[in-house]
Amino acid sequence: MKRLLYISILTLFFIGCDDRLEELNTDQRNPAEVDPTSLFAQGLRQTHDNMASISVNNNPFNLYAQYWAQTTYPDESQYNLVTRSIPFFFWRGVYRDALAQFQEARELTVAQVESGTSGIDEAVLQNRLAALDIMIGYNYHVLVDVFGDVPYTEALDPDNLEPVYDDARTIYNSVIENLQAATASINPEEPGFPANQDPMYFGDMEKWQKFGNSLLLRLGMRLADVDPAASVSIVNNALAGGVFESNADNASLAYLGASPNTNPIYEDLVLSGRADFVAANTLVDIMNDLEDPRRAAYFRQNLGEGVYQGGVYGSANNYGANTQIGDALHQPDFPSTLLNYAEVEFLQAEAAERGGYSVSGSAAEHYHAGIEASFNQWGLSDAAAAAYIAQPEVNYTTAPGDWRQKIGLQLWLALYNEGFEAWSTWRRLDFVALTPPEDMDMSDIPLRFTYPLEEGQLNNPNYTAAASRLEGGDVVGSTIFWDTLQPLL
User: Fold this and answer.
1) pTM greater than the 0.85 cutoff
2) pLDDT tens-digit profile of 467-481?
């Protein structure tokens, strides 16, 4: 016994004197210092995953835009948000998996600026802060557009389990102000995050600046019907700062060809071994009527060359008997896009049509450029776009309906697979395209997500206050503040 006690004491002595003691006491799984560049890359990847996902557990936007229909289980296209807790999983994905990464990266980068000891040029650090603020703004605008009032000023504080819900318009104002400051602060002659930690623009700050301004263009046009003066100011500043000029500027992330870095669409369409989705008749019927050449890119020709038949939206459909999702979307490296050049052109067409904005060119010119941009994005030629535009049903001067119908419909067609923005565009412009499922009417199509059930349980006072500010309460028919018009029948 004495011998064992002696060995134990001796062992403790040597460990105590060993310079590895500090290493032994360090939690290797949770390092004290985290590299902000890796956090930025993680947040960027998670943002794209959140928006690209087609999982029925967290992202029904391609269904809400009526691009796709379901086969065996049509609950989500019948607007069931509760069974799978879709609001909770989407909420968590944005707050915990994206915003928390960006916020921590921002705090660490600010500390690098203030310390002056990082060895990184301050102009580079300021560019990194700008990219972080752009992505933080993007994520908060998505949250507002999906839910309405959400936690903002008190969000992301792990010690505050009951954050207040800020007013949606106030959040928009703050996001826009921060985006304007971020884009103005960028030095495009200097790099930002390292190319291997920036899978969207690879450290090219000129492209980040264009993305920031293009996002401001989107947000400015969101305000066109609720605050025209603010909309004009925001949009004009964004256009002066420089927006997307080609598809090379698109806010896209190219995934890799091998797991775990594949597009989440590939995981659900291919790796799952399931056949849950087909093209929706809502989209296919309109494209058939217009003889739209993009059908060959958007869909498979599994029913025969040039034959397209969409599954009935909101119903269960036979996978083999309906047009399937295009081969491009079955590829592991298919890119995810947060904002594309076509949208920028259509928004300028809208601004030109509304008047008062500093837009060079006519509404027709930007409208036609938006169509060309979409064709090019999907690998179709300028000649194909020109032939399509020449059709009376498509050309801006002869297409049916007012400018909201013309621009809204073609923007919706150009936003294929960007379901969130397509759904938002329909809510804002209220053009004729979407149709209600069987035994439903237009009022059943959601205009927002309901809040996660968990919020009512864990943050009840603030949830209740937010719900009471919604006209109609916490229901899918309550509108986001910028959604002022009624859907057209």
Assistant:
1) yes
2) 999 999 999 999 999
- Reading the block at residue 290, the tokens are 């217009």
Q: Residue 166 is inside which H or E element, if any?
A: strand 165-166
Handedness of CA 378, 268, 65, 361 (dihedral sign): negative
Q: Which two tokens stand for residue 463?
A: 């949830």
The CATH number assigned to the domain holding 160 equals: 1.25.40.390
- DSSP-based helix, strand, coil % in the chain, nearest 5: 55, 5, 45
Q: Provide the residue range defining the domain that includes 408.
A: 36-258+336-469
Number of domains in the chain: 1
Q: Which residues pair with 252 in a beta bridge?
A: 337
Per the domain annotation, does 25 fall within a domain?
Answer: no
Q: Residue 384 above 90 pLDDT?
A: yes
Q: Is residue 299 classed as helix, strand or coil in its secondary structure?
A: strand
If we measure between CA atoms, which residue out of 67, 46, 40 comes closest to residue 58? 46
Residue 158: cis peptide before it, omega within 30 degrees of 0: no
C-alpha 47/C-alpha 234 separation (Å) is: 24
Sequence-distant (≥ 6) Cβ neighbours of residue 306 within 8 angstroms: none
What residues have CB less than 8 Å from 459, skipping those under 6 apart? 161, 162, 163
Tokens 């009376």 appear where? 392
Three-class secondary structure of residue 21 per DSSP = helix
CA angle 345, 348, 354 (to 5 degrees): 145
Measure the CA–CA gap between 224 and 231, rounded to whole angstroms. 5
Type of residue found at 11: T
pLDDT, tens digit, 9 for 90 and up, residues 356-377? 999 999 999 999 999 999 999 9
Residue 18 has pLDDT above 50, yes or no: no
Q: Closest by alpha carbon to 377, among 413, 347, 401, 348?
A: 413
For residue 204, give every residue at least 6 positions away whose Cβ sits within 8 Å of its Cβ, in sequence order, or none: 191, 192
